[in-house]
Fold these 3 entries.
Entry 1:
Amino acid sequence: MNISTVFLGLSLFGLAASVNGYFRLRLPGPLMVIEFLTGWLVGELAPQMLFVQALGTVFFVQAGALDAPSGQFALGLTALSWCLLAGVHRRSIGTGEEFRTALAPEGITPEGGVSPVHGFLKPFGYKTPGVRVERNIVYGEELPRDKGGRNLLDVYLPTEAKQGDCRPVLLHIHGGAWMIGDKREQGIPLMTHLASRGWICVTSNYRLSPKATMPDHIIDVKRAIAWIRSDIESYGGDANFITITGGSAGGNLSALAALTANDPNFQPGFEDVDTRLDAAVPVYGIFDFLDRANDRGANKMGTALGPKVFKCTPEENPELWDSVSPITRIHSEAPPFLVIQGSHDSLVYADEADTFVRTLREKSRKPVLHAKLTGAQHAFEIFHSVRSAHSVRGATAFLEKVYADYQSERGDDR
């Protein structure tokens, strides 16, 4: 195989990835996962991919790839890929304006100052000055169907935090289709940013399917809330002000927890604990397992989740499926919500968030804000990127506004 043919093959691959990152494809079945993975990496690492493709092009040109028509064609494909990557990155930069628009109805303005190459050199560099982490704290007894370590949580806090500080608290719930995932893997950009601004952030594990069966997952989330109520003051947190966030399955569980305060069915053995939450920021969450609005079309989740997560079909136990679908638990006393969703999400369609927000706004007396991010894929905020940075600042601005209102209502000058 000559150098021109190799250049052509790699150019075709790069262009396919760029097309997937720029356009919303919604491929069926197993192709959905491929669409997600390539779209996710292109969407958040477009500058890095542009750089790599440019270096590769220089190499192939110097190696004589343009001597053959196939090499010249490959150069044209590469140029087209660069144009698409530039468009992808331009959308990421525009995320800041999308958050400003989403938060404006409540008079909230997120911080700006995000560099257009934010995270270019260290997308996975999570160490933050002034923030420390207390790991593997037991939040409750180890329960049946625990694979090990699922009753543990981590606390991200300012290095100077101490008992009695009474700082605002955020609980983060990881995603992973209720079957995989760990507290160490997600939400770190947001938690470290908030901790650097004085917040106490908790991230907890929960029992996972197929060993665990719904509603084990949400019960464990409630157990983590109960731990915060009883123990967070020793870390400098305010046990009376707790907010929640999470992505994907964590988005489902965070929204569900916010809408089911003090539900005894989800608090077996600790029914008397107050599990009310002051705000929720679900990110690309699943809000209706049964897809009543037909937002997912042919790509339903029930068939895949039934045997492993629920151990039953919706027909066999409709009450269970309804009870853990946040859209069925909406009520007028819901806390403030900021729903964040990517328009290009191939695992959880943006239409589902649209339906949830519309329904929540019809009933809730509190603010319901919705940031729909153009071009964003699933898991877009897991590591540092331009879009992730804007998302962190948007969520921070929302949470700090809720906290300021809480302090004002209490007449608290802290």
Note: Strands lie at 131-138, 152-158, 167-173, 200-204, 237-247, 279-283, 337-342, 368-373.
Entry 2:
Amino acid sequence: MYRVFVFVVFLINVSCKSTKLPTKKFSQYEYFKSYSFENNNLRIALKNPLDCPLRVWMFNNDTLLQNKFSQINPIELKSKSDTIITLLNVSKIKDEIRFSSRLGSLSKDIEQIKLDLPFTIDKEYKIIQGNNTNYTHNSDWSRYALDFNLKTNDTICSATSGFVVGVVDRYKLGGKSDKWKPYGNYVTVYEPKSGLFTQYVHLTKNGSLVQLGDKVISGEPIALSGNTGQTDIEHLHFSCLIPINNNDGLKSIPFEFKQGYKSQELKKNDVVRK
């Protein structure tokens, strides 16, 4: 009895440890930003290394400086571009300038294109969550997303040609709580002609087969499915996104696959084949 009791306690302890949130957050991309003061002028340098437009906001606790920032926020950088901004009559400040960025350009005309199913040819998968449904497909960010029942280490393929503009694949675990939302692995691909972003979420740890800046073609393997982030079941969360002026910077939109399926018509338990 004593040995059994110890074993049960050990399992409980392991289980508790395995569901703890990660202690570090990873960004899907990095960009260059710096600032300096010279003769009461503020000089800000920004550089976008991505193969897509990038919007950058600047913030500071000084009211006068923040007013200046508010007049020019966001600064929009074209892909692979840089800029220098000079603000006159700005003395040195106590607090650091904070930067925030979002993918995409609001001035880009979006072109609807048909997408490829995001898995390998001759495979079929069941829809486990459709459009505008609980518990995670009911916000601007994910309203038109689809969840496919890919298993851990199943191959994910790019739904478009384009460039890899975001990669996170260093998380290991997941959970149903909203607290797990920032800790999912994913790949983001930008299709420059249409202006569309596609995103492939819940990858397994080290599950990205591509790197930031890679050029991909439609149907190319780019990742391995998993169970990380806000989820309690292994699957692929797939979404097509366009830029918007909100906190996330992108919103999901309806889409159509080359294979004839329309995202808004697909429901839970429907089966799709490539």
Note: Residues 32-103 form one domain.
Entry 3:
Amino acid sequence: MIENPSAATLQAPLSERKPELRAQGGEAPVIEVEGLRKTYQTALGDLNLFDGLNLRVEAGEMVAIVGQSGAGKSTLLHILGALDAPSAGAVYCVGTNVTALSVREASFFRNREIGYVWQFHYLLPEFTAQENVALPLLARGVKKQEALAVAANWLKEVGLEDRGIHRPGELSGGEQQRIALARALVNHPRLLLADEPTGDLDGITAGRVFDLLKRLHQSHGLTSILVTHNLELAARCTRALRLEGGRLTAMETVPQMGPTLGGI
């Protein structure tokens, strides 16, 4: 959580104002969203991407969000992770009102509480795999030797301890994404946000990366939100939600056959 938060940041989370949002064990949800709206101004007038969207994610859940292209899945993930701001609504992430954070506070918060994995790995080509994994620690002020030692342990976690001195261009697509996952988790975040993390991979490699993601989710006590077009992978999450028409609805059954959404 951020240090020395502003007064606005200390607003009571929704779960304190609304006890029904708490999990049965009394623990507040990791994600609490109420009445979310995101409006874009276009030449034809205002475009409401979300309007009245609500979401609750409990600690330890792995939630898949699926939907057609343009439905706003990535935008929603960005708002939950304090990378974008909503037009209206309450958004609490691990107990912090992320809409009240300054730019500096949001950066501090993201570095400590959230891990991100994207469809593209975004590894820096001039750095080795180990150096790439260490970058969030260095940004946090950890000494280089210590950061590299922690990064080496995370490379072992993802099965790539022998690839630490290799640069991204020398790695396969699956290896690059495993390095990106290690980098996302090196700061031990409580929340992992993954936007199509297997979208650029072939079916077999995608399955292996998802297996790794799920294993790390469980072994490190994460709460994870996964945006995916792959319904087969979505079915392996705690639950799946469909984003359509600016609202989230539960998918009671997720098709096991046909790995992607039609029309994508």
Note: The chain is about 30% helix and 25% strand.
